[in-house]
Fold this protein.
Amino acid sequence: MAGRNFLFVPGPTNIPDRIRRAMDIALEDHRAYDFPEFTKPLFADLKKIFRTETGKVFVFPTSGTGGWEASITNTLSPGDKVLQARFGQFSVLWSDLCTRLGMNVINVDVEWGEGVPLEQYREILGADRAHEIKAVLVTHNETATGVTSDVKGVRRILDELKHPALLYVDGVSSIGCIDFRMDEWGVDLAVAGSQKGLMLPTGLGLVCASEKALEATKTAKCVRCFFDFADQARMNADGWFPYTPAMTLIRGLRESVDMLLEEGLDNVYARHHRYAEAVRRAVDAWGLKLCAKDPKWNSDTVSAILVPEGFNSTDVINMAYRRYNLSLGLGLAKVAGKVFRIGHLGDLNELMVLAALSGAEMAMRDVGIGIEPGSGVGAAQEYLRSTATTR
C-alpha cells in the first residue's frame, strides 16, 4: 500500500525524525574513557522527567514489564503483602507478576472503566495496624481502558494513616505525557517505558527509586541479578553500566529528553490534554461512549471507545488497518471485542489526530455503525481551531 502507516495504538508510538537521526549512528565503545561525559548529564536530566531531585533513575535494556520486576525484586521479600487494584489488563498483569515472584497480593477488583478506589484503599490500609502491607501499587494510566488514577490521593491516604508502605507507580503510559511528580506525590518507585511518551523504540525500561526505596534494597530478599539496583548504582556513579548497554536506544533517549525539556513538561502535559479532549469531542459527536465510566477517569494518552451493541470492535480495527493503513488498539481481555483504542500520546500534532479520527470514522461506517459522516472529525476540528495558538 502506498503511503505510510498511521500508528495510533497506545504504544509503540511515532518516533520523531530527530530521535531517528540520533540513533542512526555507528556502534560505539561503551568503555571509552570519555563515555561518562555523555552518561552523567543524561542520568541527571532523566531525574527532571520524573520530577525528582532526590531519586535515582536506572536504565535497563528491557520493557516496562522488566521495570515492574526490578521495582519489586529490589525492594521486597517473598511473602510480603502487596496491595493492588485490578481494573484493566495491565494492572492485572502487574498483580500476576507479583504473585509469581512470591508476593502475597491483596487484590481489589474494580469495574473496568474505573481507577484506583481510594476509599477501599483507605479501609484496607487503615485496618492494617501491624503494617504488614509493604507495597501499595498504582497503575497510573491503564491503557486497556483509557483510565487515569489519582496517585496523589493514594499518597495522601498513606500519610494520613501514617502507613509506612512503599508507593509504586506504573507510569509506562503516563510519564513524559501527563502530569507526574515523583517527589511532590511521595512516589517511591516509578516505572516508565521507552516506547510511549519517550517516543523511542521498545527496549528500555526506566525505574526511578526514592531514597526510602533504596534503603529498602538493603533488607529485600528477592533473588535478583540482571535487575539489581546495587550493580547499577555502583557503576552509574562513575558514568558506566554493569553490562553492555543498548547504546543506540540510549542515544535516542538523550534526544528524547532534550525534546521534552525544550518543550517544557507542563507544555507537554497541556498538549496531550488538548489532543485527548479533541478525541473525546469526536466520540461524543459520534454518539458513542468511552470505556472510562466518569470524566474524572479520562486518560489524556489513550481513549478506549465502546462500539454499539451488536458490533465487534475487532472488525473496526481490522477494517481500519486493511483498508486505510491505520493502526488502532485492540480491546484486551474483558473488553475484547467491545472497544477500540486510539492512542494520542508522544510525537503528535493536530492533523495527525484528525487523520486518526477520519480513518476511524470511515472504518466504523464500513462495518455498519451508523455514525454521521464527518461528525467526529468536525467536532474535533472546531475544538482544535478554537484552542489553537500561534507557534
About this structure: Residues 265-286 form the longest helix (22 residues). The longest strand covers residues 133-139.
